[in-house]
Specification:
301 residues, cell membrane, mainly alpha, MetI-like_sf, transmembrane, MetI-like fold, 12 helices
């Protein structure tokens, strides 16, 4: 066996190259770290600016009058204290969001379960997953246009149920993706143990897999709710909005995003201030849902 002995000159060259490589790596690491820090600071600055503007402009007109009264056509140009509020829009948003969630969640849950438990590696499962991913990234206005052609035109007018259906379609792919991902994280050994005890597959899924993935699935549902709570484009083509409190799902129904859009474009300062209050309510609601989702997910670990 032969050994190679480096000369002092070769050793010096190798040490010099190693030091040079180390300095270059440290420089690149430091540069990337500062770039990431700068991007973080820039993102936080814009986020703080948005939140600060919403708080500054939104709190100006946010009061019990805003929350408990509805739009008044006679309030144009009058003092803000006499202007209409957002009660009709808040109630309409809650109704449509709740119905959309109730319709979309079971469908998304079952489709995600099918993809994770029954269709792994199958061509049909890959096709369903592809369609779900396309739907997840599709512009919401296309969903509104689809429901407009499918529901609004045959019914002869805008309606709250059409708006809820549009929101349900937006909910479905979010729940599908979350459910599939959470179920795939469950170890196969747990499934094999349950099946080995003689339990049928459906019971293994409902009693074991769902329980193990409950926090992740619930988080996905809450994130879907947060997304549809601020949607405007599909509702413009489906429920359209109105200026009175309505519980009739067969007629046009108000919502906060549409009320914000309409009042912000009214040109009257009092209504624009009300629109800022509505924007603050939507933002705080979405923020609260996201915080709850993270708290639920963290509490389960």
């Amino acid at each position: 066996m032969s050994t190679t002995t480096l000369s002092p000159l070769s050793k010096a060259r190798n040490e010099s190259a190693a030091r040079s490589l180390g300095r270059r790596r440290k420089f690149v690491d430091s540069a990337v770290k500062w770039l990431c820090l700068a991007a973080t600071v820039a993102g936080l600055f814009f986020l703080a600016s948005i939140m600060g503007t919403l708080l500054w402009r939104g709190l100006e007109s946010l009061s019990l009058n805003t929350l408990l009264t509805e739009f008044k056509p006679t309030s144009y140009g009058e003092d803000t204290a006499q202007a209409g509020g957002l009660r009709h829009a808040i109630i309409g948003s809650l109704i449509q969001t709740a119905i959309g969630t109730v319709i979309g969640t079971p469908i998304g849950l079952l489709v995600g379960t099918y993809l994770a438990e029954y269709a792994r590696g199958s061509a049909f499962g890959n096709a369903v997953r592809f369609v779900s991913d396309v739907l997840l990234s599709a512009p919401s206005i296309l969903i509104g246009l689809f429901i407009y052609q499918l529901v609004v035109l045959p019914m002869g007018g805008f309606s709250g149920i059409a708006g809820a259906l549009a929101l349900a379609i937006i909910v479905i792919p979010v729940v599908v993706r979350t459910t599939e991902d959470m179920l795939q994280l469950i170890p196969n050994t747990l499934r094999e143990a349950v099946i080995g005890l003689g339990a049928p597959k459906w019971k293994m899924i409902t009693l074991v897999c769902y329980k193990a993935a409950a926090s992740g699935i619930l988080t996905g549902i809450l994130l879907a709710v947060a997304r549809i709570a601020g949607e405007t484009a599909p509702l413009l083509l489906t429920s359209f909005g109105n200026n009175v409190t309505s519980l009739d799902l067969s007629s046009a129904m108000a919502s906060l995003p549409i009320a914000i859009y309409q009042q912000a474009n009214s040109g009257f300062p009092d209504l624009i201030r009300i629109a800022w209050s509505g924007a603050l309510l939507v933002t705080l609601g979405v923020l609260a849902i996201n915080i709850i989702a993270r708290a639920v997910l963290r509490g389960r670990h």
